User: What shape does this take?
Amino acid sequence: MLSMESKIAVFEKLYALWLREFKVFLRERSRLVASTFTPLLWLFVIGTGFGSVATLSSGSSIGYQKFIFPGIICMSIIFTSVFFGSYVIWDRKFDFLKSVMVAPVGRGTIFVGKALGGMTSSLIQAAILLLIGVLIGITYSPLGMIEVIVIVLLLSFTLTSLGLAIGSYMQSLEGFQLIASFVVFPLFFLSGALFPLDKLPQWLTVITSVDPATYAVDAMRIAVLGIGSKPFVFDMVIVLVYAISLGAIGAYSFGRMKAV
Amino acid sequence: MIKIRNLTKRYENLTAVDDINLEIAKGEVFGLLGPNGAGKTTVIHMLATLLKPTSGTAIVNGYDVVTEPGKVRSSIGIVFQAPSSDDMLTGYENLKIHAFLYGVPSYEREKRIQSVLELVGLADRQHDEVKKYSGGMRRRLEIARGLLHKPKVMFLDEPTLGLDPSSRGMMWEYVQKLVKEEDMTFILTTHYMEEADRLCNRIGIIDQGKIIALDTPANLKKLIGGDIVKIKSKSYPDLENLKKLIYIRKIELIDGEIIMYVDNARANIPDILRHLEAEYVEFRSPDLNDVFLKLASKNLKESVEGGYMERYAQYGK
Assistant: This one.
């Protein structure tokens, strides 16, 4: 058991690590602009383009653009979170990581601090997209907003953990990007962000069901549009299980990461 | 303050640090010298708990680096070879984050940050982003960061590499001041012999993972034996005759110049000149470069900074 004093100390250290990530995020405007631009491209170009030919399941009054909107929010979280892992490699390149590791801070704390930074980035991205959602005629309920925040935090923790775990093993940015792309695109395409999953052939259904983003997208659709194929709580439990598992893997990876 | 016991670091096909034993007292400034790849940084990294020894251990400020890394980390400050501050943040922000990480109590945080900024002369630039700092300022910020939590031991890994002479002088002043006022213990690695000579009470020369010499700078220089006299003779010199002179310890002919190791060169050069007709004469006291070259293996010549060693390399042969 940690004493009260050391609990406060851990909290302060987490705050410091988070603060650093947050300030860097705020100062790197280009990062924010670039990572907001891609989802908008999907929403307005793919959403409008495919919207003109795609017909969703009968009886649905929601257009294709609105249908993919929750998926696009998840997409932005997937990309932001996984690629956040590349900052471990940056930190190592510039020796900042070494300066943190030589401080009396546990590896688990460093991991969580970093993950909090990634979650904050995702939350800000999601908030921007939610505002843009108003433009395409989405209306939000207060409960829906709370649900969205919970989904964003859980999904981004899950995938930031994954990104950080990958980053902790990689030496080069190029290597990281290669591996991360292998992870990110299947996560996104198999999540049901762009199409309903209920009419897929069975082999594809099996694959989509192991993708944590599938459940986040479904939950997001319930929170934002009020439609979904599975119960909200069921989705959230699955995402939570992934969050805990990948969080543990991430913390373990940080623990065995070499300092120099 | 530091006790190193059989410290060893082995990689697959390389022994980076080979069974080192060493004690460093409180308030001492200890210099680790050695060619690139000799194991200096590896020793520092093990003492700073960043690297696990293959065998052996070290006690830093009473704590074992292998079994009590957390307590060791709280006791030490470190300045790495390359600046490690986040250059997207301001100097102040970097210090604030590290004050939290080191658990500097909240009532002292601001005061400490300002006092270390004051010490390294960065108080007026504290709210600029580090990317706008010069190399010297970055290095000073590292020093400030290392001092935030009032460490008992400070490690400086080539602290003045790439700094201009005035920044280097400043760095030396901080070290001397901190030893005097805070009784801090320093371990530094350097390639600048002048720096080691000026700052360090004791020097360990490390080569291929082993400490091959350990003494005060003055005693190390005595190993060379006498002043170094270089004479270009107009005619072919009669070395046999010169060798009879009692104050000449060693004599060599290199590239047409006579190199002699001479006791009290200032007084004896006139006598030497009676034995040969000189085109020119140079003489100097031995410095740590000579010691370094005499002791360390041949492959080190290329490693030393600034071409200075190249010019004097011939003396060491």
About this structure: Chain B has twelve helices and 14 strands. The first helix of chain B runs from residue 40 to 47. Chain B touches chain A through 31 residues (CB under 8 Å).
